[in-house]
Amino acid sequence: MAAEEHAAQGLTAGEYIGHHLTHLQSHKQAGVIDFSVFNLDSIFWSVLLGVVGMFVMWRVARNVTSGAPGRVQAAVEILLEMVDTQAKGIIHNAESRKFVGPLALTVFVWVFLMNSMDFLPVDLIPLIWEAIYGAAGGDAHHAYMRVVPTADLSMTLGMSCAVLLVCLYYNIKIKGAAGWAHELVTAPFGTSKNPLFALILGVLNLAMQLIEFTAKTVSHGMRLFGNMYAGELVFMLIALMGAVGFGSATGIALWFGHVIAGTGWAIFHILIVALQAFIFMMLTLVYVGQAHDHH
Length: 295
Description:
By secondary structure, this protein is mainly alpha-helical. It contains nine helices and no strands.
């Protein structure tokens, strides 16, 4: 529902925000962490935006011209050149870049599109969904719909785990299974000719390697989630400013404040949306590049 409608129904600010922060799920959780529960809204919007991104890139590639490019082709060419330059500077294996380069481009476009859903009015799609859900006989008060997939921790950690799998693949491909296994127990502290010291160092090295992989994966996903979740929350708080109504001078002032604040935050958020997509792409390249390094 729109912020004004929630206010008219006597809902508090906390209830309004809580409604907007609740996912449309496959089934209710039993009060504990349940990995059988899926956030259907995040899955739907992420898949849809992924298809849209691939379709746009496909159309541009299909209609590419050697003469003066159109605006869309020029923008895609600039993006391709940027990603290719970053990939060449980090991953020196030309064979690996044939896969990692397109992967980085896909990551940037996909994350950028998912982040950009934050520019839609806070209540627009939830209001449409409530109308559809109510028309189907459901209770509109329980029609949950979140439209920013990257503000869902399960999505961002899922993507970072996928990057981890790519890193593990290249560790084995570049160094060989035996070579990577040797690296796990000899880096970063080295080894010793003394069997006891070698065993102790091996355990410490393995523990440090596991901590490093875990820390990189968790921070990779948490960084994107934290920034997008905070941005989504700020938009909700700004929307609440306009829900007071025009019954008083304070209400009028808050409404104008919510227009000004919303416009300013949306303009500033353009930088956040693009920057977070770039950072996620760059960390993907850096982590895959580290998988090519021998210790």
